[in-house]
Amino acid sequence: MRYFGQYQVLFLAQSEEQLLAQIQQVPLAEYKTQRLRLALAEASRQQKHRLHHDPVSAIQSLAHQHQEILSVLESQALSYQLDS
């Protein structure tokens, strides 16, 4: 519950076959949407875990993400200046 409390699914199945049938009724788009929401909710906990267990790698990853964001922003600013 601590990790997945944001989303709860209740199934009323008496067998594995019934459970499988119920799970297969979930639309794929809905599953993907909820899975993405769960991943986003878990991101901060995972980042804290990485920072605690492998701080060098976690900081390098953050620095790399920061550099990628700066590159995107710089290219957008350049594109905007050229359009003006």
Task: Write up this protein.
The chain is an all-alpha fold. Helices cover about 75% and strands about 0% of the residues. It contains three helices and no strands. It is elongated and about 60 Å long. It starts with 15 loop residues before the first helix and ends with a helix. The mean pLDDT is about 85.
Brief summary:
With 84 residues, this protein is mostly helical.
Beta-strand content bin: under 5%
Write down the Rg: 21 Å
Inertia-based shape? elongated
Record field, number of beta strands: 0
Largest sheet: none
Structural class: mainly alpha
Subunit arrangement of the protein: single chain
Helix content: over 70%
Secondary structure tally, helices: 3
Mean model confidence by pLDDT: 83
N-to-C series of helices and strands: HHH
Distance between the termini: 52 Å
Low-confidence stretches: none
